[in-house]
């Protein structure tokens, strides 16, 4: 290992993060806004001690196994780590780090934006206005669904799920949730715990997906689970696209079983399923859950804290473990 640790960045990160990085580390390659592809990653990794990536770069088992042995650590600019094969990294002795906590509020805000946006037909109304199609106020135009008093089912009551619940209480929603175990958090004393998904779905007039993507949550929301929702439910996904079977969701949006959906994440990012474009009962955003200046800086600093600790021989503050 050279004296100044060498970090390969899969792309450019916010400028405050780049400044701190370049003051302590040698940066390998010339990162740009566009992420490097797999062959460049492999090539540049030959001259680096650690990789600083984000969730758009996949390090599956095959990729991890062919990484050069000089790579000792990968820190990801994300809380989600479904793009990293944790078992393969641990077998190869590569330490993994991520950025929990700092994006909780920003992501929960976007979940509420998606919820309101979907329930109130905000995108379709805004597009009509911008396209010059708004002719007059009308008592029957752009009719959405009231949030106040409705039951919100939260699938996954981790940090972000809890922050969504706290915000939704401000809209007088009644919180139900499914999680591996009940949570006892301040402000959530009245939230109703369901120890199985089936019961949660039956109650969810609104459903917010806030669980991580894993083999067990892939397509967890599918034709069968959607059928268990009350009619005219609103579905919100700000976690990971593949938790929802998009074809099943599109069918349910077309049939009206699901009244509207608010989505910040998709199965095949950055490509939007073309069938979505035909739907008006949809509010979509391009994976911007953590996109505030403050949050993105804080995420970068968490990655730096991981690197700093690792190269100082200390335990890293945010390790990803099996
Ligand atoms: C995260 O941190 O997991 C965000 O979704 C960005 O990838």
Question: What is the structure about, briefly put?
Answer:
With 322 residues, this protein is an alpha/beta fold.
What does this structure look like?
The chain is an alpha/beta fold and 322 residues long. It folds into two domains: 6-102 and 293-311, Rossmann fold; 104-284, 3-Layer(aba) Sandwich (Rossmann fold). Helices cover 34% and strands 15% of the residues. It has helices spanning 15-24, 38-45, 61-66, 86-92, 104-119, 122-130, 159-169, 197-203, 223-227, 246-255, 293-311; strands at residues 6-9, 26-28, 50-53, 73-76, 95-97, 151-155, 174-178, 192-194, 206-209, 233-237, 258-263, 282-284. The strands form two sheets. A seven-stranded parallel beta sheet has the order 8-7-6-9-10-11-12. Strands 2-1-3-4-5 form a five-stranded parallel beta sheet, sandwiched between helices. The two termini are 27 Å apart. 40% of the residues are buried. The model has no long low-confidence stretch (mean pLDDT 97). (2R)-2,3-dihydroxypropanoic acid binds next to loops.
């Amino acid at each position: 290992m050279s004296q100044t640790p060498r970090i390969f960045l899969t792309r450019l990160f916010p400028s405050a993060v780049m400044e701190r990085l370049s003051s302590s580390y040698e940066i390998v390659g010339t990162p740009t806004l566009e992420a490097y592809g797999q062959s460049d990653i492999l090539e540049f990794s030959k001259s680096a001690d650690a990789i600083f990536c984000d969730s758009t770069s996949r390090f599956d088992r095959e990729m991890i196994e062919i990484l050069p042995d000089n790579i000792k650590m990968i820190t990801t600019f994300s809380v989600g780590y479904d793009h990293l094969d944790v078992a393969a990294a641990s077998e190869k002795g590569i330490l993994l780090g991520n950025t929990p906590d700092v994006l909780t509020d920003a992501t929960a805000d976007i979940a509420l934006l998606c919820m309101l946006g979907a329930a109130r037909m905000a995108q379709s109304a805004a597009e009509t206005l911008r396209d010059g199609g708004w002719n007059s106020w009308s008592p029957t135009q752009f009719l959405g669904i009231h949030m106040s008093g409705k039951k919100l089912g939260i699938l996954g009551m981790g940090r972000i799920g809890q922050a969504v619940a706290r915000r939704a209480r401000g809209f007088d929603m009644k919180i139900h949730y499914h999680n591996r175990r009940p949570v006892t958090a301040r402000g959530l004393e009245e939230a109703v715990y369901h120890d199985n998904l089936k019961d949660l779905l039956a109650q969810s007039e609104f459903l917010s997906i806030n669980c991580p993507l894993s083999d067990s949550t892939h397509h967890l929301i599918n034709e069968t689970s959607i059928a268990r929702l009350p009619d005219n439910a609103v579905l919100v996904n700000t976690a990971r696209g593949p938790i929802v079977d998009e074809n099943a969701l599109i069918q349910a949006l077309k049939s009206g079983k699901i009244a509207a959906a608010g989505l910040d994440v998709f199965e095949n990012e950055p490509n939007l399923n073309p069938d979505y474009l035909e739907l008006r009962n949809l509010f979509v955003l391009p994976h911007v859950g953590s996109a505030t200046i403050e949050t993105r800086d804080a995420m970068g600093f968490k990655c730096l804290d991981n690197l700093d600790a690792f190269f100082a021989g200390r335990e890293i503050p945010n390790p990803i473990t099996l």
